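Weekly puzzle thread! Below is a chain. First person to post its structure in token form gets bragging rights.
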Amino acid sequence: MFPKKMVMIIGVIILIVVNIIGLSVSNRRYLSHYGPGRIAIYLIAPFQEAASRSIRFVRDVWGHYFFLVKVTKENDNYKKALSQAIEKNTKYKELKLSNVRLRSLLKFQKAITNLALAAEVIGKDPSPWFKTIIIDKGKDDGVEKGMAVVIPEGIAGQVIEVSSDYSKVLLIIDYNSSVDALVQRNRARGIIKGGSEDRCLFKYVLRKHDITIGDTVVSSGLDGVFPKGLIVGHVSGVVRPNSGIFQEVSVTPYVDFEKLEEVLVLLSS
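Winning reply:
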């Protein structure tokens, strides 16, 4: 018994030889149409067809391989270019949004009578019990403990710690914060205290005052920290008990503390 490898090699050699003979025979013009040539072509044609198909198959696979390699390379280049374009577009959007915020801050800075210093928020307290932020301005920039921190939308907080280059700001939603405030419509006075993530408590408001949901609350200027007339927020809840001298009032600040990025520190009264 011959090994399978030897049989395959002999078969391939025979196929090649028969194919060559067939081509030679088919090219002889003197062979009769009804003679041995026709028989030879009849016998050889299937082998020629199989060989041709094999050659075409290998050629197509080879061509498709290089085509796919080229397409893959082009696809990688397109992906890289798209990624770079997305990155540039994101940076452009960030610059545009930052420009809008800074323009609004500058316009507000011109509107207030206080000398104000623009600062960027560079950190937030991760603790759920304290609501503070860190800004990139400190003692060397003229910032002092107790100064008010505001944005165009309203009061943000108060400076509680100062280093040479940085300061910590206590936000008005912190439980330890307090702002002397009044209802703009009827001048009913109380103290804004931190209450929750997005609300403050308007404490010590006398029950006799007519407080309605939607009333605007502003700073009274009587605490010596926040100038009079700065916006705090709007009344979002009122509970007037049947007894007692005070009513329970909730206030939602206009400042979105989750999106706080730039602030103004009021340097003088």
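Puzzle host: Confirmed. Bonus trivia for everyone else. The two ends are 110 Å apart (CA to CA).
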